[in-house]
Amino acid sequence: MKSDKYLSVITFYVVILALSIASGYQYIGDFIEKGINSAGTFISYFVLIALFSIYKGVSLFTRKQLLFLAVFSVLITLTSYLYPYLKYSEQNPSDLMSPFSYDLVLNVIVFTLLFKEARRERSQSIPEQKII
Questions:
Q1: Half-sphere exposure (CA, 13 Å, Cβ side) for 63?
Q2: d(CA 71, CA 52)
Q3: 38-90 pLDDT, tens per residue?
Q4: Given CA atoms 72, 40, 125, 115 in this order, what sign does their dihedral have?
Q5: How many angstroms separate the CA atoms of 82 and 8, rounded?
Q6: Hey, how many other C-beta atoms are within 10 angstroms of the C-beta on 44?
Q7: Three-state secondary structure along the chain?
Q8: Cα distance between residue 15 and residue 34, in whole Å
């Protein structure tokens, strides 16, 4: 049974890594843009799992992991827009930045949900102190 547990998590990571690398490889841009895209795809899978676990009321991630996902998903989104914006600054920025507002709103919602869940995890993990 323990081997099934490890085999399933290894398979899970291999599939997510393969999909993330394939997504980054297909992305049009330099190696940094491809890496940013791969990292964004990789973290997106975990964000989706965290959001679904919130919906189901099941705790799959620790408080620190939820905070990491919340912060990293915002940072990777900002990086995915700011790097090309700086690199291709001679081009029309409105063409490059037009979907940014939609992604920003979505990331604020995701950040808020994950942050609230991290706070809830923290409040449940702290044992209640008895007042004498």
A1: 10
A2: 18
A3: 999 999 999 999 999 999 999 899 999 999 999 999 999 999 988 988 888 77
A4: positive
A5: 36
A6: 19
A7: CHHHHHHHHHHHHHHHHHHHHHHHHHCCCCHHHHHHHHHHHHHHHHHHHHHHHHHHCCCCCCHHHHHHHHHHHHHHHHHHHHHHHHHCCCCCHHHHHCCHHHHHHHHHHHHHHHHHHHHHHHHHHCCCCCCC
A8: 18
d(CA 88, CA 73): 23
pTM comes to 0.85
Instruction: Look up residue 6 and give its two tokens.
Output: 């490890």
What is the per-residue pLDDT across 31-40, written as a single tens digit (0 to 9) for each? 999 999 999 9
Instruction: Calculate Rg over the CA atoms of the chain.
Output: 18
Q: Select from 69, 50, 68 the least CA-distant residue to 59.
A: 50
Instruction: Tell me the CA distances in angstroms from 107 to 4, 42, 74, 76, one per residue in order.
Output: 35, 15, 6, 10
CB of 69 closer than 8 Å to CB of 47: yes
